[in-house]
């Protein structure tokens, strides 16, 4: 009723004055994020097509107005043009807020090449969308090797984990679309559950410089970003079809994006990939087929002031593991090492038999943000992940189809982040994280649990700040505290419990017992402090230097604490230790970057010292009814790693380019004065490319990959006795394979059909010379050679 | 005025979203039952391997070689030999492979698993320093590729000597050869590899 009355009153009022065009409108244009007046803004009056400009106080006036609607279009350099409708009722005043720093406030530095970085003073490298497209049929770990200093630790050729400057697994944090991946990343044979086709851009950050994501990234952080939504009415997509000769593989992936000017966006992506047995130059690698299905979708609304997004992704990988790698005893392992070729070689097949893995990962995320005037941005995020891991071993009878490992890991995370950026020269960021994780090990496997049931609780709080001290000097710093609690229920064999000496220290953990086993309830708390400080100094407009110090702290993972038993594929007993405390890393790094159109150089050095570094080494052996086995025990020591990474590109002419990537890392156990195991050997890549824009963006390149022999390795070889002959047999599990050199060919051209549709055709030949080689960082190097020649064809449609 | 109203509206929706998130977390967290996990008794392990040699002419002349691994492949094992072979005598070997991790329900691995899948298994024997010979019996269970599995065997003790006797069980061997009776294989993986030491022929 009240409203109605008002409307009536207003109508009468406006009617009475409708012919009176003498009013003045005064506008005041201010910057959204810090309230400063925006002088010089252009104001276009659509009603009479006239222009005016804001004065030094951001004010302007338009005279001789009638009551009614006034349409103004306001523009200012660096701002998104704004169209507003003002209701003129007599003399009017309105404050108009413009988004002046939209670009700077995206929390990323946009460089001239369209690359967006996540950090300011960390050693960060970005892999662009076009480069990622070349890896459509491969895995995340393969694509990351584009970055100098990143290699991979493999189990065969489909289980590929990134190693950043010599560190991997729990020491490398992977973020998918802002969500920290929780997928049982502790094991070497557990590849990250990422569909490379869902990524638009990937950042690799060496060291733990980015505290907002976690304080335990001793090795580094991999940030996977989806396509950024653009505020335009547009629909576009991409489809990639690929085929590979080696493994007779084929893959397809499609992405469709819909954006609206209003800020709404939606994206859907699906991919499928299949391959059969791969082939080394001399034989088929039986049972190395794989099958991968992925799907992801996002939608939401992003505007400058607020937005939300919903994301869901699904990935299922079924991966066959080289049949010849299944061993029963140490003598089998010795025979494999000595024979130099796999014990099981069959004709090509797409079949995937045990041993194999079947891993399914679901990720769902809800995000919301809101920007407040003169203040900053508040973001909220909730995510849920479900990781189901099935490992099928070679078993007999009905158990053939029952997995030997059946784990379900569920993780819920809530994040709150406050970004105070009203002063662009002094940005502050505060945040909190709460996480709950539940691991369930299915007892129906009929095999004792490798990883026990546990609940894990994490709480983190952090602050980071970025100060622009001068135009050419930026300093940033961060501080973070994390609390972790792991609450496990684990069965120990009584014999093991006593042998580990737990009976004296931990008898209070026992909550139940069976004739042969104790049920224990270990509850451990860890407090972790991490910090970083860095600076970036521009020497001139072409070069800058970066210096960074980071303190990181990582609590032991479930595998390091609780492993106990035979690890089949490695033919060894692995024992964790519940006495472990966290490991603490101090890393200093420096970079020099020089970038001109002709010459680009990025040089990085680092030194990382890690106290209480957790690693596994042989300590003893045990005589079982399968013969003698070595016992490997997780231990803590003090370690140090140092090295350099170089990346250079030189354009001889506009068509000819030479690129080099070189990485060198050394790692030592300082207590035992031993080299660390699984350190990538020195490697250098050279690539020469010819490209010609005029010929449908044709390019052809030849790449040389040279891996040296790892000359510093810990000798963990052991000797077992053949009881029958009393012969002493050395098992050479430590010796690295010799150096190798590979050549790869790649050529592509893009045919444009219209402004928005194009077809890119790419032909590649990997391992051009069909070289036989073995890689020190492949866990299956004892059993078979790596992949031989592979001819790949890829069609990429953009529309 | 209008802006303020808009803001408070957004604040409200922010609060709602926060509340919703926390509710969701609570709900999903609560589906975790704090139940005590069930113990897993290994299904596939072999805890007791026993070779019983009985003299065909004298049923009281018995040699028993036994190996006990309470934790199966997951722990240490101990071997024991009782009795001694008699020079010139012929023995029949009876094999027993049992999973006795649950003492109340021991599982006969030999008859229930291995013989059921005889085409994927093969027993190989070996001796060292002791004058024992063996033959695979005519009624032995058929093994892979026309071989004899090695479950029913006959052993002959030669001159007095002391040495070792080895038994191996190979799963999914690539090739098997029993032409020399003891048996040899390539490929596959060893499920059992036990050597009994200081076996005597008197």
UniProtKB/TrEMBL annotation, chain A:
Gene Ontology CC annotations of this record: cell outer membrane
Cited Gene3D superfamilies: TonB-dependent receptor, beta-barrel domain, TonB-dependent receptor, plug domain
Domain TonB-dependent receptor-like beta-barrel residues, every copy: 354-768
GO molecular function: siderophore uptake transmembrane transporter activity
PROSITE patterns listed in its UniProt record: TONB_DEPENDENT_REC_3
GO biological process: siderophore transmembrane transport
Domain TonB-dependent receptor plug: start-end pairs: 118-221
Lipid bilayer topology: Multi-pass membrane protein
Leader sequence segment: 1-18
Pfam families cross-referenced by the UniProt entry: CarbopepD_reg_2, Plug, TonB_dep_Rec_b-barrel
UniProt keyword annotations, A-Z: Cell outer membrane, Membrane, Receptor, Signal, TonB box, Transmembrane, Transmembrane beta strand, Transport
Top-level taxon of origin: Bacteria
Location(s), subcellular: Cell outer membrane
InterPro entries reported for this sequence: Beta-barrel_TonB, Beta-barrel_TonB_sf, CarboxyPept-like_regulatory, Plug_dom, Plug_dom_sf, TonB-dep_rcpt-like
Family designation: Belongs to the TonB-dependent receptor family.
Name this polypeptide is given: TonB-dependent receptor
Originating organism: Hyunsoonleella flava
